[in-house]
């Protein structure tokens, strides 16, 4: 969908939703550490260095909410952020595909992610971030398989779109749409973003606002 496909009221709601600050609540290393299920949750998943923290910061209109790092696997817990004004919680999930991380840590993070995805009744949607320069990789498809099995709605967000030519981007879009075409829990529309240039950020805010309205 394009931003123009949404009613003006929903677009404005999306703008206002992220006009107020989001705050870091806690980092959860166990399911027992998570807050009560008292508001809508959305989660962001993606391979390490896909630009997840940068995207969350761009959504919130800040450069300092989510930590960014060039070190794969730095996010080792479920990082929880909440709106100070609306009943919305953002969950930043540990990056996957981190080859340099110890196996026991990878296994622990994997169990945590599985338990989170299958146990949160208030989880409305997972945004699966895919690097626009590469398209879906095996780790991305594994996470999509998990989401399909758990019947958790998810939508693919292509990141770093500014790093590609128009032709390269069209190719990645076609590959990604083919990868999700028959997946039962996948939203059929992609969101194309560039955190650096701001492309797609208002569309993503509007998509999230529509979730809250539904």
Task: Name its key features.
7-stranded mixed beta sheet, 214 residues, 7 strands, alpha/beta, 6 helices
What are the secondary-structure elements, in order, as H or E? HEEHEEHEHEHEH
- Please report which band the strand proportion falls in: under 5%, 5-15%, 15-25%, 25-35%, 35-45% or over 45%: 15-25%
The class by helix and strand makeup works out as alpha/beta
Oligomeric state of the chains?
A: single chain
Strand numbers in spatial order across the main sheet: 1-3-4-2-5-6-7
The 3D shape can be described as: globular
**What gyration radius follows from the Cα positions, in whole Å?**
16 Å
Roughly what percent helix? 25-40%
Describe this structure in words.
The protein has 214 residues and is of the alpha/beta class. Helix content is 36%, strand content 20%. It is built from six helices and seven strands. The protein has a seven-stranded mixed β-sheet, with helices on both faces. A hairpin with a 4-residue loop joins β3 and β4 (88-92). The chain is globular and about 45 Å long.
Break the fold down into its secondary structure elements and pairings.
Blueprint: H1 8-17, E1 22-28, E2 40-46, H2 52-60, E3 78-83, E4 88-92, H3 103-119, E5 123-131, H4 138-150, E6 154-159, H5 166-180, E7 191-192, H6 201-213
Parallel strand pairs: 2-4, 2-5, 5-6, 6-7
Antiparallel strand pairs: 1-3, 3-4
Helix pairs in contact: 1-6
């Amino acid at each position: 969908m394009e931003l123009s496909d949404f009613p003006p009221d929903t677009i404005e709601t999306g703008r206002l939703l992220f006009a107020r600050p989001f705050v870091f609540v806690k980092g959860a290393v166990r399911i027992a550490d998570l807050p009560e299920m008292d508001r809508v949750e959305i989660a962001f998943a993606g391979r390490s260095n896909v630009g997840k923290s940068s995207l969350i910061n761009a959504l919130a209109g800040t450069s300092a909410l989510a930590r960014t790092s060039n070190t794969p696997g730095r996010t080792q817990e479920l990082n929880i952020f909440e709106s100070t004004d609306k009943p919305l919680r953002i969950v930043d999930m540990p990056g996957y595909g981190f080859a340099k991380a110890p196996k026991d840590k990878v296994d622990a993070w994997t169990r945590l992610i599985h338990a989170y995805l299958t146990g949160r009744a208030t989880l409305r949607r997972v945004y699966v971030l895919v690097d626009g320069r590469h398209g879906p990789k095996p780790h991305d498809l594994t996470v999509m398989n998990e989401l399909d099995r758990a019947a958790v709605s998810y939508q693919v967000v292509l990141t770093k779109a500014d790093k590609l030519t128009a032709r390269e981007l069209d190719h990645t879009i076609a590959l990604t749409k083919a990868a999700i075409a028959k997946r039962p829990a996948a939203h059929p529309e992609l969101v194309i973003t560039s955190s650096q240039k701001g492309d797609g950020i208002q569309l993503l805010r509007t998509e999230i606002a529509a979730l809250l309205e539904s």
